[in-house]
Amino acid sequence: MILVETAGNFQLMDPMTGAVIRHEGYTCVPNSSFIGQRIALNQAHVVAEVNNDATDADWRDTVEQSKGDIELAIAAFVAEFPVQGKTEEAAKLKAEADEAAEAARLKAEADEAARLKAEAETKAKAEAEAKGRGKLSLPKG
To answer: In CA terms, which of 35, 86, 87, 118 is 20 to 30 Å from 135?
Structure first.
């Protein structure tokens, strides 16, 4: 099943399955050859892929529960009806993204620590030079 929308102010009806893509908003329909052709002809666009347990009624319920927030509805719908195999792939990609984010955070911390150390060394050197210039040597005797 796929969540699709038409590319204009028209609806499409799949003659093989009887599925209708409404002229406004998204519709959950079977991924048939007819729908594939409409997508290839740029008459329809895929929004998300869901498993075969999903129905258009489920989609409309999800939109209603999300109070019209379409992005939230799409995320909830995909989470409720995940495509087999895509869940593991998504989890793997999320884990990789989390690792990359952690690595970037650690690098930023290391860069900040190096900057602070260099700043402290420069300040200490400047203070030592200033103390050295401020001392006058008095002749002994």
So the answer is: 118
- Going edge to edge, which strands form the sheet with 2-6? 27-29, 2-6, 44-49
Window from 62-66, 96-100, 106-110, 119-123 with minimum mean pLDDT: 96-100
For residue 106, the SS3 value is helix
pTM: 0.59
Residue showing tokens 């102010």: 9
In whole angstroms, give the CA distance from residue 135 to residue 47.
76
- Of all helices (H) and strands (E), which one includes residue 131? helix 86-134
Tell me if residue 27 falls in helix, strand or coil: strand
Which phi and psi (to 5°) does residue 6 adopt?
Answer: -80, 160
Burial letters for 102-111: b for 16+ Cβ neighbours within 10 Å, e otherwise? Answer: eeeeeeeeee
Residue 115 CB neighbour total at 10 angstroms: 10
pLDDT in tens, 19-54: 999 999 999 999 999 999 999 999 999 999 999 999
Pseudo-torsion of CA 32, 40, 62, 17, nearest 10°? -20
